[in-house]
Amino acid sequence: AFPEEVRKIIYTTNAIEALNSKLRRAVRARGHFPSDDAAMKLLFLVLNRAEKEWKMPPREWAMAKAQFVILYGDRFTQAMA
Questions:
Q1: pLDDT tens figures, 18-35
Q2: Where exactly are the structural domains of the chain?
């Protein structure tokens, strides 16, 4: 029932796939771990490093915001304030 711009934002998995790729790459590069805690620490460090790259919103967000304003009017603009 949503316009295409909104569906792209709602259903996108690119960000999730990119994060999973970083985690898999880190684990694969290490190979094996002496304990579960060592694996958790590595994943924690990878997530912290990846979080610093999350500065820009998806490029479809501007068009999706416009559609949300059309669909929900004041409710959306109040929520964004």
A1: 888 999 999 999 888 999
A2: 4-80
